[in-house]
């Protein structure tokens, strides 16, 4: 219970800061329309002065005064005069500084001193990022809303390039480059302009290299905004009316998770544009683990949110998520009729359009021959990624028919992929490893012969084979022989089979 109460405090603090940030930004956004001659921005150092400066000296900031050993006798004598430590009292300045020990409200009194109007809005109970942002947005007045996580730090000139894009086209939603603030030392490190937002089959947001086609579209000019398939979620600016028009957030989602992909798909599918503005930099503390507890468990909440995301926006491609996450279809996702109504009202495009036009290098293939297990005809074993990581060997194991680690897709580009990893062979006779899919064919190109049932690695001209005696848990690759151990069955699993 103590831990829970502690978490609530942590969360409440974070939410307060989110909202504080937001209103600070709303001011800036409004000010963009102000007279040029009006001073813009906060005069550094002036506003951010601490409430009370700690001073050097005995007893300052309410610290105890320690009398040295040699004066202890004299101290005891003096104590008798007033029945308190007169010697200590004499040593302390008449106007000594004291810490602010008030129980609450320091934040409110602090923001009152700021030279810009800042409103602190508190949620009465823990309601999560999505509903807190909706509340902040609802009371905002500026033309542009900027959302920033509580653990962000802005650099000089971060805002103007964001606002300029929205001014140019109000349906453009913009993110800064997210610089890295070390969670350990708070060192500030510039983020890369060469990565953009994507997602994997599990619907986790991931950074991937900006593809060549996007470099070409910008004619190699790295100062131009990058069109990104998804946003990380914590930091973005959006026209306030447009935010309403496209349906803010899905209020049926709880706490956190999936909302960033939901707004990303919605922006693109419903006629907007999502960009990373490379001239704008904001720092963010990336955490290695979430500090919060989730009511009912992290998995439950995120699975529910992701189901809503998949059911409303992903059409038949939701199966990639369901097949790699067995059990997830048991999670109740509530009522999505109003979100489906929104999609209909805004005449949003299908997910296949998004994959084709916005994210052709997506981890979800637009066209594919199979999505399911890959089974060896002789041994009846199945390829299995064994939950191994990038750069490790792909495994082979008894087929369990449950999806998850045994789900592979043979794509129209002739890759064999499991999520964002592709089977790759760089040496004659193997091994067969799993590398990040690079879309360049090369060592990731496989030819499946649906009659002979062989999977031939094109570059080496060798065939995928069963496990060898030396290692019974990895498939091998050898000269093609036509043997049954080189025959593989590729098929589509259907959902009822795995749930
Ligand atoms: C107390 O007064 C001294 C002398 O006027 C001054 O130097 C010092 O800054 C004051 N301390 C505080 C905490 O105001
Ligand atoms: C598997 O499903 C995909 C997508 O519906 C389809 O294009 C493909 O032909 C199917 N493959 C097999 C082997 O049934
Ligand atoms: Mn964050």
TrEMBL record:
Molecular functions per Gene Ontology: carbohydrate binding; metal ion binding; polypeptide N-acetylgalactosaminyltransferase activity
Source organism, top-level taxon: Eukaryota
Domain Ricin B lectin: start-end pairs: 366-491
Membrane topology, as annotated: Single-pass type II membrane protein
Cell compartments where the protein resides: Golgi apparatus membrane; Golgi apparatus, Golgi stack membrane; Secreted
Cofactor section: Mn(2+)
UniProt KW Magnesium keyword: no
One Gene Ontology CC term in the entry: Golgi cisterna membrane
SMART domains: RICIN
Keywords tagged on the record: Disulfide bond, Glycoprotein, Glycosyltransferase, Golgi apparatus, Lectin, Manganese, Membrane, Metal-binding, Secreted, Signal-anchor, Transferase, Transmembrane, Transmembrane helix
PROSITE patterns: RICIN_B_LECTIN
Residue intervals passing through the bilayer: 9-28
SUPFAM superfamilies, per database record: Nucleotide-diphospho-sugar transferases, Ricin B-like lectins
UniProt-annotated stretches for the region Disordered: 45-65
Top EC category: transferase
Pathway terms, separated by semicolons: Protein modification; protein glycosylation
The protein's Enzyme Commission number: 2.4.1.-
InterPro entries reported in the protein's UniProt record: GalNAc-T, Glyco_trans_2-like, Nucleotide-diphossugar_trans, Ricin_B-like_lectins, Ricin_B_lectin
Main localization (coarse): Golgi
Signal peptide per UniProt: none
One BP annotation, GO: protein O-linked glycosylation
Family affiliation: Belongs to the glycosyltransferase 2 family. GalNAc-T subfamily.
Function: Catalyzes the initial reaction in O-linked oligosaccharide biosynthesis, the transfer of an N-acetyl-D-galactosamine residue to a serine or threonine residue on the protein receptor. Has a broad spectrum of substrates such as apomucin-, MUC5AC-, MUC1- and MUC2-derived peptides.
UniProt-recorded name of the protein: Polypeptide N-acetylgalactosaminyltransferase
Gene source species: Muntiacus muntjak (Barking deer)
